[in-house]
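Sequence, structure tokens reproduced for absentees:
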Amino acid sequence: MKKQERIRLLITREAARLMYEEGVGQYFDAKRMAAKRLIGKQYRFTPKYLPSNGEISDALYELSQLKDPDTHEERLYRMRCRALEVMEQLEPFSPRLIGSVSTGRIREGSDIDLHVFCDEIEELEHYLNTLGWHYERQTTTINVNGRFVDYQHIHLDFDFPIELSVYPLRELRVVGRSSTDNKPIRRLSATKVRQLITDEHWSLYIKSG
């Protein structure tokens, strides 16, 4: 293995460890922290050593399987069931499941990521209030092609953390690309999540009655 490939692999593994064991939440932060620890400040001048988000995601998944093989499936099953319950309650807002719970690549600290669609966030908040759910609203500003756009997020208080990313109705059919692998984001409707549970967790589904 060439030196460049070896260093890249070491950074990938360390970044995955940082995310799994030390709770670093972003790939961007994890890869730079790992590079700085392994090769020092000169990593800034050698971007070829830095792994992609997808490489770190693969290593993180392998690490979670190695560290916690017995409870991984059960945890994933419970997270998908919780996601489905919430999605059924939020049906008027066309919820879609994305992220690690949809792909199965969860780790300790993973949350349930849902996209919901409405033109007035106050309508969603009123609906959540009628359900009696506890939540917090957060606004993030993102630079989109040179234009700053505000996105609204709702954090729900359940046994697993749940984040609702709120989009206008016109974007229901718009599929973005993942920051992890640049592939189209996998967005699952409640019907598809239910099918996923019965297909991939049949034995647990039967046991739970």
User: Anything to note?
Assistant: The CA atoms of residues 177 and 183 lie 5 Å apart. The first helix runs from residue 3 to 21. Residues 70-207 form a domain with the Beta Polymerase; domain 2 fold (CATH 3.30.460.10). The helical segments are 3-21, 27-39, 53-67, 69-89, 100-103, 121-131, 190-200, 202-207.
